[in-house]
Amino acid sequence: MSDPRTSVWANLVTHIQREAEKSGEATDIPVEWKQIAGAGRGLVATRNILPSETLFLIPPSALLHVHSRSISETFPPSFIPRTTLPSPGALTATQLLSTYLALHHREADRRDAFFRTLPADFDSHPLSWVTERGQASGWTRLRQLLPRAVARLVDDVERRFKEDLAVVLKALRGHPTVLKNRSLADVEAGFLWAWLNVNTRCLFYPFPLPQPSNLTLAPLLDLINHATPLPPATPLPKPLVPAGGGYKLVAPSTGYKKGEQVFFTYGSHSCAFLLAEYGFVLGAEKNAYAEADVGEIVERWFKDLGKEGKWKKEVLEDHGYWGDWTIHLYPSPAHPSHRLLPVLRLLVLRASSRLSPEFQAWLDVLNGLSETVSPGNEDKVQDALVDLCAAVEKRANDALEELDCLGGDETDAWVESTASVRRLLEGEKQIAQAVKKSVEDGVEF
């Protein structure tokens, strides 16, 4: 039996090439859409590709954005942002494109070539755990196993989704003719799928519009998987916007060998951010921006100090150092963030108030007037780092142990979701172990 993706891909390539010809461009597309083991689908080279060779061009007419013809034919002018100034009643690009996709959700399998390459569902995305499965015990507990900082990122995605849905439904109630033969319930039923397509697949596009609306959906480019090469690896290709619009993707200085997968980077994203926003996790060793947030642990340590911890917290707030504390695997050697070190120096400082000479010594270090508070203080910081790494490792181990016992529905979505959480937790454990080793090896931070 033939793979249905083959015909979908062929139709998409034909569509892109025809659109390019209309604008006087010819584009060879020396890549193909294939299933990638452990990574879903992706694009691989069909032949050897030379360094700096153009992989393909995507003409402006093939993009879907707020100025696309299909958008202007679907929505009233008041829905569409036009200038850099806020337009009363206008939707953002995310809201507008999500509504457009949701309106056509039920017919997506029989619409144009681009629609047919969009994912059929996002069942393994954390937002789906919340909105689609409600209080189902296994899914609820899976979310609870996320470290606090990761859960907050998921909460933020959920908040944005709900806010966008509310705005869209209100706008459609005021302009029911947009629905044509559909209902608000139809839009609401397809909005999660539509919103996640937009949130996970849009690229920046330089319109003279408010920042949230400088987005577009782009066929072909949205089939490329994310990677963050570790130094000194060759930088990945970056989609370029030619003078005439659209996109051009150029091979890196190493080119590609036949069968090699094409990647680009979605941004400088941690594993936690990738899970919350995109629904997948790279192993920490594959992510140049891998980090573990240690905020909930350090905050607890300050709270345990009682009154002393309270005034020290106020000091850190006054100087802009409260919160956003992380440990990192890269660049090697593994290390704490620059924000974390002064916090730990103050945490272990023997000082009764801001008037003590010990506190002034800490302040001198913070202001760059001195290298260290004292040799004894630095020793205690190293001990605190070891304890911190042990706490992160324990947090990960406890969650992994519960994950092993967690009962689910054994669907593909459950298997993929638990695998992502496992990869995230194992990554944080790996980072903690690596930072601990750096301390034990005498690395100076």
- Terminal residue distance: 59 Å
Q: Which overall shape is indicated by the principal axes computed on the Cα atoms?
A: globular
Largest beta-sheet characterization:
3 strands, antiparallel
Q: Strand order across the biggest sheet?
A: 9-10-11
State the order of secondary-structure elements, H for helix, E for strand: HEEEHHHHHHHEEEEEHEHHEEHHHH
What share of residues is helical?
40-55%
Topology, number of strands: 11
What is the radius of gyration computed over CA atoms, rounded to a whole number of angstroms? Answer: 25 Å
What structural class do helix, strand and pairing data support? mainly alpha
Strand content: 5-15%
Q: Give the overall average pLDDT.
A: 91
* Number of DSSP helical runs: 15
Please tell me about this protein's structure.
The protein has a three-stranded antiparallel sheet, covered by helices on one side. Strands 1-2 form a two-stranded antiparallel ribbon. The protein has 15 helices and eleven strands. The chain has helices spanning 4-22, 69-74, 93-103, 113-117, 126-131, 137-144, 148-174, 184-201, 271-278, 295-304, 307-318, 340-347, 357-366, 375-405, 412-440; strands at residues 31-36, 40-45, 54-58, 203-204, 215-216, 225-226, 247-250, 263-264, 291-293, 326-328, 335-336. Strand 10 and strand 11 (335-336) form a beta hairpin. 47% of the residues lie in helices and 8% in strands. The chain is mostly helical and 445 residues long. Helix 3 crosses helix 7, helix 7 crosses helix 8 (184-201) and helix 14 (375-405) packs antiparallel against helix 15. The longest helix has 31 residues, at 375-405.
